[in-house]
Amino acid sequence: MLKKRWNHKKIFEWGIEGLIKLSGIVSIILVGLIFIFLLKEGISVFKIVNPINFILGKEWHPVSKPPDFGILSLILGSFAVTLGAAIIALPLGVTSAIFIAEVTTGKTKEMLKIGIEFLAAIPSVVIGFVGIVVLAPVIQKVFDLPTGLTVLTGSIMLSIMAMPTIVSISEDAITAVPKRYREAALALGATRWQTIWRVVLPSASGGIVAACMLGIGRVIGETMAVMMVTGNAPRIPHSLLEPARTLTSTIAAEMGETVQGSEHYFALFAIGIVLFIITFVINFTADLFLHKEKV
Amino acid sequence: MVDKLARIVTEELNVWYGAHQALKSISLKVEANEILGIIGPANSGKSTFLQVLNRLIDLKPQTRVSGRILIDNQEIFGANIDVEALRRKIGMIFALPIPLPMSIFDNIAYGPRRNGIKKKSMLEEIVEESLKAAYLWDEVKDRLSDSGLNLSGGQQQRLCIARTLALKPEVILFDEPCSGLDPVSTGKVEEAMLELKKNYTLVLVTNNTKQASRVADRTAFFLMGELIEINNTQEMFTVPRDKRTEDYISGRFG
Ligand SMILES: Nc1ncnc2c1ncn2[C@@H]1O[C@H](COP(=O)(O)OP(=O)(O)O)[C@@H](O)[C@H]1O
Ligand SMILES: [Mg+2]
Fold this sequence. Notes:
The structure holds 2 protein chains of 2 kinds.
Chain A: H1 8-43, H2 51-56, E1 60-61, E2 68-69, H3 72-103, H4 106-121, H5 124-143, H6 151-175, H7 179-187, H8 192-221, H9 224-229, H10 247-255, H11 263-291
Antiparallel strand pairs in A: 1-2
Helix pairs in contact in A: 1-11, 3-6, 3-8, 4-6, 5-6, 6-8, 7-8, 8-11, 10-11
Chain B: H1 2-5, E1 6-17, E2 20-31, E3 35-39, H2 46-53, E4 63-71, E5 74-75, H3 83-89, E6 90-93, H4 104-114, H5 120-133, H6 137-140, H7 153-165, E7 171-175, H8 183-196, E8 201-205, H9 209-215, E9 218-223, E10 226-232, H10 233-238, H11 243-249
Parallel strand pairs in B: 3-8, 3-9, 6-7, 7-8
Antiparallel strand pairs in B: 1-2, 1-4, 4-5, 9-10
Helix pairs in contact in B: 4-5, 4-7, 5-7, 7-8
Bound molecules: adenosine-5'-diphosphate (ADP) and magnesium ion (MG).
Magnesium ion is lined by residues 46-47 of chain B.
């Protein structure tokens, strides 16, 4: 029989383990509490409007009498902006990651990586500001529009915000592919690009997909920049060149004006629930890809 | 007469990694359908020697090569050499078997497919042929669609050999192919090599002098980047010409 002995080392180990467990549990509890709070505050709105009408309703007039609480235009606004950003950021981000990981070396590589990190450090308000001052007038002129604050403007600015996540996580995944794999493929007479395409990218695919999902997650949750550059019109956008409004910017813009405990206030929390569920699903899926067993 | 059979000839071959010279003036010949063993302690430049032969050395930054390498009388660092074609002709097996992240079948069909072979029946034929030549067919014929990564170490190594054979190479370089294998798997790989000798020219780097004495026709002894001695295996292991060779093969060496 092994007797359990207590000494300093054991207690220390036990203490550390406990501490780590505790912080894990606390963060789970916090997320749970936030969700419960959201649910508690948001659910009241469903006394006035049923969930289906809430999600599929086309009209959002929270302060008119009687109010309309339909968030379809906001969901589609978020969707359009995110889709646009994804179409721009995913190919650009993944190819940048391939370029940084596979083509550049030494100083150039370091410089590019620092540049990407720097991009991540720009506050979103600044990105929004640049969008209004620099991009919006260009878009207005090029497409001859009444306003340059459109879905497209938002997508472009958000793609800039998603890039750092996509590039740096994809780059890590590509760099983590063992050098032996490349040598094996090259020794079989594959060219550099064949090696990247058939061996390196498939081996890194889990990480790359996760990087893309996390990048998109960032875009959906983004508020400030998107509020500044998409024009904030709660209408269903029919093209990328129309203004739109997203779920996040609705909450940010209107929360300050509502009376606590009013129907409008509850409706904004209900939007929060919808957002929470969307980002949760995205991050969860990304996690599945990150931790999926390598082929 | 001997020259006619020489598959690979190196003349005054020098290789540097930055300022460090890893190979010093190596001149030797590899003859057709022989197994040339290369032995020597770690860091003697054995792997470097193999990597110049298929120009995998090109990938390492800051390397410099001087001297000549002729493969079938063709200068491999010459101006109009197709490096990919060279690497298909000079197959290489590594110490750690590295199946590509795909099925057994696709691992072997990878090279031929890239060479433009699309027909399923033809690929199947090549896969079967290659697996048989690598002594692996019987063990995997019922699970060709399994991932190559699910095989045992010895099987993975023979899969890698089969994959190389599928490219119809002329020379196969082995870099300590059995260093990670148990004696039974090692025996199977050696058996495969002896069989391959009939159709291919083999260069076998090994950290196991006994392995060289078992399978190599001739053996070269490398030490600190120099070629100390090259001779018939039997002669080398019974009457080495150089004192350092004797010390090494009798195990009196650091
Ligand atoms: N990529 C590299 N960069 C710098 N030095 C290297 C590199 N690869 C090998 N070397 C050096 O070259 C010498 C020969 O190495 P190697 O050919 O691997 O020897 P062996 O295979 O006989 O152990 C060693 O001193 C090693 O440190
Ligand atoms: Mg070596």
